[in-house]
Every structure is written in structure tokens, then in C-alpha cells.
Design a protein that fits this description.
This protein has 18 helices and no strands.
Length: 445
């Protein structure tokens, strides 16, 4: 029954992430049918990710009052309703509202589902969350192809969201049935009884849902990245009461800003690049089918990145590893603007996608290892929410700049310059011993 429940969650997370990434390959369709500008459609894709970031901290608080599985079920229903609403959108305003609602549902799901999986697999949490995260990334890989096939057969982009709505509702119903048959959440003991480690607010006033383990970038590696998040013998326990005090994050503002410098600027650039990737490649002379194929390549590179990212972050010095990933992302972004053939674009797409997706589990590992256990949850929640809110604006900026007459290549080079500036500053601070680092990781002086 545990496996059946976990499989259902993997199916649901596939749809959750599909809802977020489906907007990118639909950008040309939105522009053509609704007659909107690049800046306008950029605001739509931005709102998806703003919606993803917005509920992170509030849902973390809700998990102290409501059982995890109920929050997951609520997000499944919300995804179904928001997708159905998006399918009926006939104006820019309605499309924006639908995108934001889809983002809200996805953000709430990730915050609630990760600690739920931790309850199901207390002894192999990292592996389970990794599989769950990979299921999410697979959605990003197949989304462009599924969108193209759906439009080719139905002739209407709305069928994508109709299918998403039906699928989300069906899997939510399956999840309800599995939960009822299981009789509770948590691992089963030798007698077959569910050992529910306080998954509801009423059972344990200190059970916050372990917000610190809820990865804002949905990499699936945060749980096994930092063994310090496992407290005692109870995988559901909060480190300390301070984990629920979000004001405690203020005392760790240097670490929060350090983490943001290592991911938010590159994430901002990545959001802008991948949401306009198809449009950019078409403007470079590639066919629509090849452009969508290369977007798939960029997302496919994220599968090994998610699997390996957290493990490499465990075995390598965390700050230098993150600096190296930023450098790789910077170089691949510049190389993208210099490419001129399908083969070159293909190679760069793979490297760019790998570098971008590797950043997320690496920075999660860095944050969880650097923050003290007492304040980890609150500071981590602030970091994740602030980072995503910044990153979400990347596509809107790309749309505004291209509408102003600036070519895609120069916009991407501008983003590369911003990443280079942050990379240089972070490197100098690290070499000077002024950059926050995990305990035991010596910085050069």
C-alpha cells in the first residue's frame, strides 16, 4: 500500500510540474490566438512561477494545523480547477489568472508532499524524494512534445489544459481511495499498523511539516543532501521550536543572501531563456519542431542533473562547486548566443540545461548544511520564497526587452553579464574568507 501511495504521488507530481512548464511551448500559440505582445505573454509565464513561490511560507504554516495528506489533496483539486479555468481563457487577463492559479497549486503541492514522503520512507527518505523529484523533471522533458502532439491532433492549445484538469482530478480521486484503504500516513510497524508520526496539527504541536526539507526548486535531493535534517529517531520531528519562527531568518540574512547570489540570478536568467527558448530558436532560423525538440533536450539534461546534483554537493566543497556551476551556466549561455547550427544549438542546449538544473539541488544542500538546525526551517523558507519570486520575473524581462527592439542574443548576453558580476563578487568574498560556508568547510584566507 505504501508503494501504491507513493506511485500515486509520483503521478500527481508529474502533472503538477507539467502544468508549470506547459506554458513555455505554448507561447507562440498564445501570441497568435490572443494577439498579444511578447511582453504580455512573458507576464503569463512569469505569473506561473510567481504563483509557485507565493504559497511556500504560508503553506508551511498551514502544515502546523492541517494534516499533510489533506493539503496534498487540496492542491490536487486546486490544480484541476485552475487548469480547467485556464482552458476557458479568452483574454490576457483570464490567461494570467489561470497561470497564477496553476502556479499556486504547484507551489502548495511541493511544500506538503516532500515531508509526506519523509513519513512514508523514514529510513530511505533521500532515495524516495529523489525518485519523486525525477518524476517531476520527466514532465519537463516530455511537456514540449506532448503539447505539440496535442495541438497537432486537436488544433487547439486548450486541449492541453483540459487533459491536465481531468488527469489531476482522476489522480486526486485515486489518492483519496488509497489513503482510505491505508488508514493513515506513516510507515507500518511489524504488526502492519500505521505508525503515523504526528502528521496532523492536532497530534503534535511541534510538527511543522519540516519546511526546511521542502525544496523550493523541487529537485528531490534536499532530503538526502543534509543528514543533519534527520533529528533523532523520529523523521517527522522538527529540529526545535525555532523552526516555526520565521522571524529567526532575519538573524541569518547573510546566509540567505549568499544562497540567493548563488542561484537567484542564474535562475532569473534561466527562467527568461527557457520560457522564450522556442521563440528564440525559431528567430535563429530553426523550424518549430526542431526548436521544441531542443527545449526537450534542455529539460532532459535536468534528469541526470537532479540525480547527481545533490550527491556531488555532498562529496565536493559546496561553495566552490556552486561557483563552478554558475561559471558553466555563464559559459553555456554565452555559447548559445554564438551558435549557428542545429548541432551547435543541440550541444549547448544539453550543457545549459544540465548546468541550470544542477544549481538547484546544490544550493539546497548548501543552505541546509550552512544554516543552524534551530533556525533552518524559517531561514530556508525565506530563502526559497525570495529566490523564486526574483527568478520568476526573468521571462517578463525578456519579453519587455525584446518588445523594445533588443535582440534575443543581446538580452541573453546581458543576463550572462549579470551572472558574471555576481560570480566574480562571490568568488572574491569566498577567497577572502568572507562568504558564509558550512561548518567544517574551510574557506581560504
Amino acid at each position: 500500500m505504501t508503494r501504491r501511495l507513493f506511485t500515486t504521488l509520483c503521478g500527481l507530481v508529474f502533472l503538477v510540474n507539467f502544468g508549470r512548464v506547459a506554458f513555455a511551448p505554448l507561447v507562440p500559440e498564445f501570441q497568435q490566438e490572443l494577439g498579444i505582445s511578447a511582453a504580455a505573454v512573458g507576464s503569463v509565464t512569469t505569473l506561473v512561477w510567481v504563483g509557485t513561490a507565493a504559497p511556500r511560507i504560508p503553506v508551511g504554516w498551514v502544515l502546523t494545523k492541517v494534516r499533510r495528506e489533506r493539503v496534498v489533496l487540496a492542491t490536487g483539486v486546486a490544480l484541476s480547477l485552475s487548469a480547467a479555468f485556464t482552458a476557458t481563457a479568452d483574454s490576457l487577463g483570464a490567461l494570467r489568472a489561470g497561470a497564477f492559479a496553476v502556479g499556486l497549486a504547484s507551489g502548495g503541492y511541493f511544500v506538503a508532499s516532500i515531508p509526506l514522503i519523509g513519513l512514508l520512507y523514514p529510513d530511505t527518505t533521500g532515495r524516495a524524494v529523489g525518485v519523486h523529484g525525477t518524476a517531476s523533471q520527466v514532465a519537463g522533458v516530455v511537456a514540449p512534445t506532448l503539447v505539440v502532439v496535442a495541438i497537432a491532433r486537436a488544433g487547439d492549445w486548450r486541449v492541453v489544459f483540459v487533459g491536465l484538469s481531468v488527469g489531476a482530478l482522476a489522480l486526486t480521486a485515486v489518492l483519496v481511495a488509497v489513503l482510505r484503504r491505508r488508514g493513515g500516513i506513516g510507515p507500518r510497524n511489524a504488526d502492519g499498523v500505521v505508525a503515523d508520526g504526528g502528521s496532523g496539527g492536532g497530534a503534535d504541536p511541534h510538527d511543522t511539516g519540516d519546511v526546511a526539507d521542502a525544496d523550493p526548486h523541487d529537485t528531490g535531493d534536499a532530503a538526502d543532501a543534509d543528514p543533519e535534517t534527520e533529528v533523532g529517531d523520529d523523521p517527522t520531528a522538527d529540529p526545535v521550536d525555532g523552526g516555526r519562527d520565521f522571524r529567526a531568518a532575519l538573524s541569518h540574512w547573510r546566509t540567505v543572501l549568499a544562497g540567493m547570489s548563488l542561484v537567484a540570478v542564474a535562475g532569473f536568467a534561466w527562467q527568461g531563456v527557457f520560457n522564450f527558448y522556442v521563440s528564440y530558436l525559431i528567430s535563429e532560423g530553426l523550424s518549430a519542431s526542431n526548436a521544441n525538440l531542443l527545449l526537450t533536450v534542455a529539460f532532459a539534461a535536468g534528469v541526470p542533473a537532479f540525480w547527481l546534483g545533490g550527491r556531488l554537493a555532498d562529496s565536493l566543497p559546496k561553495v566552490p562547486y556552486l561557483l563552478a556551476l554558475n561559471a558553466l551556466f555563464l559559459l553555456s549561455l554565452v555559447a548559445l548566443t554564438l551558435s549557428g547550427s542545429l548541432l551547435a544549438f543541440g550541444v549547448v542546449s544539453a550543457v545549459l540545461g544540465y548546468a541550470a538544473h544542477s544549481l538547484f539541488p546544490a544550493v539546497d544542500t548548501y543552505m541546509l548544511a550552512t544554516l543552524p538546525a534551530a533556525d533552518r526551517a524559517s531561514a530556508y523558507a525565506v530563502f526559497s520564497g525570495a529566490s523564486l519570486l526574483l527568478e520568476a520575473n526573468g521571462s517578463g524581462v525578456v519579453g519587455a526587452l525584446t518588445d523594445a527592439g533588443i535582440a534575443f542574443d543581446w538580452v541573453f548576453r546581458l543576463f550572462a553579464a549579470a551572472v558574471a558580476a555576481l560570480l566574480l563578487a562571490a568568488s572574491l568574498l569566498y577567497l577572502a574568507g568572507r562568504f558564509p560556508a558550512p561548518p567544517g568547510e574551510r574557506t581560504p584566507t
